[in-house]
Structures are given as C-alpha cells and as structure tokens.
C-alpha cells in the first residue's frame, strides 16, 4: 500500500470511531433521563457496586469453628475452594494400655547369634499408639531398625560365640476399638504411592489370573467399591475353612489356594485371600500383622484366656475406599469362631459377628506391621511377612520355633 493510500484509510477510520462514540454517548443520556426529567438510578455493575462508588459487602459472615472448619467454606476464589470437604478425624475417648514383655533365653550358643523381634506400628493411628520400649539382657549390641519403606520396624540384637543369651524386651501400647462409619465420607485421601503398593502382587498374594476371575465371578454387576468389598468378604467367610492344626498364622500362600481350589487355613491364609481378590479387581487392600493382647468381649476364642500371648499372633486385613480411607475387616475370625465355638452358619450370634467384623476391629490386639516380602536388616533373607521372632546363628536362619515367651497385661499409666 502506498503512503498516501495508508493516510487516507487512517483518516476515514478515525472519523468512523468518532461518529460511533458520539452515538453511544447520546443513547446513554436518553437512558438516564426519564419523561419527568429526573435522573434515573445509576446502573449496577457485575461486581455488585454502583458506577462511581466503591462498596464491598461479603456474601456471608465468615465464622470458623470445630464444626465448621475453614476448609468447608473457604473464601471464594482461593485454591482451597477447589478442594473436597475434609473434617479432622475424631480421636476415640476410651483407650486401654497393654504391657507386652518378650523374654528370650538361649543356652550354649555354638556361634555368633542374631535376633530380630517385630515391633508395634511406629506411627500413631486413631486406634493404636506406641508409648515406648525398654530392654535388658547380656546382648553385645541392641537397636531398633526400620525398613526403608516405613512399613516395618524391628528390634535387633546379637551375642558373641560361646555364651548364653538373655533378653527381655518390654513395650507399652495403647489401643482403642476401631469402627467404620458409613455416614462419614470426608476423610483426606491416601498417598498415591501407598495405594499403588497395595494394588501390587507379592510372593504369595497374586493380583491377576485366577484371583481376577474369582473376583469377577463374585461381583457380577456390583459397582460401588464398599459393596464390592462386602461381597468379597461374604464370599470368603462362606467358602473358607479355618484349620486350627496349622502352625502359627498359616503360610499365607494364596496362590496355592487359588490353584488347588481349596480355600482356607489360618488368619494369614483367609485374610490374605480377601486381600488378593480385592487387589485383583482394583481395590487397594493389605494384611496387617499383629498380636492378641487381651480377652475378647465377642467370643472367648477371639482373645487370650490368660496373660500368655506366645502363640497369640494374628493377621487382620483392611481395604481402601476414597473418602472413607482404610476400612478394617476380619473374615478369618468369623471362620475361627465357627470352628472353635462350634457354631452353625445359621446361628444368630454368628450372623451378628459376621456383620460386626466388616468394619470393626476389637482392639484386644496390636498391629505390628504391614510389611510383605520382608528382607531382614543385616541379612539377604526374604520372608513373606514378619510376625514371629527370628533367630540366626552361624548356620543360618533356623526354625522360628525356638524357645521364647510373650506375656501381656493391661496396665494403668
């Protein structure tokens, strides 16, 4: 475009803009002046204030209390307004404290000897608090060691060759009964790495193949995750057998159960089966390894009958649903009650117990850890889970049934 053509176009455009502005100003004056000649009210802008006058009126009073925390009604436009409502969990009011004493006595050690004892959860929860540890004995070295993933903490000690070994470890733990409330879906979400870990398979707990096929058959068209877990729980209770003749808590070999089509065993086997099916259909789930510490208010077979907890090890389970966090279950103890209390499947007490143990843990039990495929600190040995004391001599890891004792009692601190 030549220079003279450009200047002519610019002049024409300026004239057009001037005419449009004059027309707009004239129309505005007609709107503000009525027939009576009085001036109309000034228009209200989108921000809720009159033109030419700055005013501010909050939509509602901002008051934050324990029942109405700040995250429930954050100021508009803040990042918190995009978060889901989250209420702080309410801690239980009734707690019991147990003293757990583990005693080890070994005679005439043939070589250097190492000992590992599982310890209670190293992080406080709404149902368990570890108050402290103390120990005495003639060990050469002693310390508490935690695995890198934080799921397991152990007490470690060792003795030199040619000596007797003595150790007494005392732990104080407070517990409160754990309840799942279906009406409160306002719990903060779990970390994604923890959820992914509890969807993965382990040595003995698969998450695909036969476990997936079984889960699909159990669920049918059920879509709600809580209802899905309840269906799996009911199926495990109705189709497994508790075998009190097995040592410890069983092997926890769910893969073998699925291959053989024979479901059951002890707590590690039955609750491990529940966990495997949940993981296979996409619900994070995990076994929780622990120890019975007191008598049961539900059935005598579900607690200690005295202070001897040497053979009181017991595995429980929990699954995760967004908004509810981890939900406790124990299908194994339903089968245990049927077996040891000699109950029929139609007994009213059993029907009530089946309902209770979906969402409730009676805390006459303490949780040790969540670890699977555990590598003991200082060794290259991998174990499916750590629940019993482990002893290693110069010849390697012997049978875990070496002589030790565990005593518990309820105390007032």
Q: Secondary-structure blueprint of this entry?
A:
Layout: H1 3-32, E1 96-106, E2 113-118, E3 128-137, E4 141-146, E5 153-159, E6 165-175, E7 178-179, H2 192-197, H3 210-219, H4 225-239, E8 241-242, H5 254-260, E9 264-265, H6 267-280, E10 285-292, E11 313-321, E12 325-329, H7 331-340, H8 348-356, E13 360-361, E14 365-369, E15 374-375, E16 382-383, E17 390-392, E18 404-411
Helix pairs in contact: 3-6, 4-6, 4-7
What does this structure look like?
The strands form six sheets. This protein has a four-stranded antiparallel beta sheet with strand order 3-6-1-18, with no helix packed on it. The protein starts with a helix and ends with a strand. The protein is built from eight helices and 18 strands. Helices cover 24% and strands 24% of the residues. The chain is an alpha+beta fold and 413 residues long.
Return residue spans where pLDDT drops below 50 for at least 5 consecutive residues: 31-36, 45-50, 58-72, 77-83
> What do the pLDDT scores average to?
82
Q: If you consult CATH, what is the topology of the largest domain?
A: C8orf32 fold
Strand order of the largest sheet: 3-6-1-18
Global outline: globular
CATH class of the largest domain: Alpha Beta
Q: Characterize the main sheet.
A: 4 strands, antiparallel
Described by its quaternary structure, the protein is single chain
Number of E strands: 18
What is the number of helical segments per DSSP (H or I, 4+ residues)?
Answer: 8
Distance between the termini: 95 Å
């Amino acid at each position: 475009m030549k220079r003279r053509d450009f200047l002519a176009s610019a002049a024409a455009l300026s004239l057009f803009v001037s005419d449009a502005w004059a027309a707009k100003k004239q129309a505005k004056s007609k709107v503000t002046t009525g027939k009576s000649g009085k001036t109309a009210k000034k228009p209200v802008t989108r921000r809720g204030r009159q033109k030419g006058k700055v005013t501010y009126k909050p939509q509602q009073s901002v008051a934050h209390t324990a029942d109405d925390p700040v995250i429930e009604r954050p100021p508009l436009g803040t990042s918190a307004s995009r978060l889901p409502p989250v209420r702080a969990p309410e801690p239980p009011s009734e707690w019991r404290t147990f003293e757990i004493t583990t005693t080890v006595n070994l005679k005439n050690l043939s070589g250097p000897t190492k000992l590992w004892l599982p310890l209670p959860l190293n992080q406080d929860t709404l149902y368990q608090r570890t108050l402290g540890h103390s120990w005495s004995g003639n060990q050469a070295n002693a310390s508490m060691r935690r695995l890198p993933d934080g799921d397991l903490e152990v007490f470690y000690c060792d003795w030199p060759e040619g000596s007797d070994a003595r150790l007494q470890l005392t732990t104080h733990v407070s517990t409160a009964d754990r309840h799942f409330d279906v009406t409160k879906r306002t719990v903060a979400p779990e970390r994604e790495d923890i959820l992914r870990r509890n969807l993965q398979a382990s040595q003995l707990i698969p998450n695909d193949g036969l476990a997936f096929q079984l889960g699909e058959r159990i669920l049918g068209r059920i879509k709600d995750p809580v209802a899905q877990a309840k269906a799996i729980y009911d199926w495990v209770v109705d189709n497994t057998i508790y075998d009190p003749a097995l040592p410890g808590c069983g092997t926890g070999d769910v893969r073998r159960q699925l291959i053989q089509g024979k479901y059951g065993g002890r707590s590690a086997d039955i609750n491990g089966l529940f966990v495997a099916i949940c993981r296979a259909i996409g619900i994070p789930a995990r076994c929780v390894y622990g120890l019975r510490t007191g008598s049961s208010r539900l059935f005598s077979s579900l607690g200690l009958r005295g202070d001897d907890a040497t053979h009181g090890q017991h595995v429980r389970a929990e699954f995760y649903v967004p908004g509810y966090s981890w939900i406790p279950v124990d299908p194994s103890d339903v089968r245990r009650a049927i077996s040891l209390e000699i109950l029929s499947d139609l007994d009213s007490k059993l029907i009530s117990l089946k309902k209770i143990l979906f969402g409730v843990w009676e805390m006459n039990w303490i949780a040790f850890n969540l670890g699977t495929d555990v590598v003991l600190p200082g060794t290259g040995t991998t174990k499916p889970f750590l629940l019993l004391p482990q002893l290693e001599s110069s010849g390697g890891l012997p049978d875990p049934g070496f002589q030790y004792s565990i005593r518990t009692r309820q105390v007032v601190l």
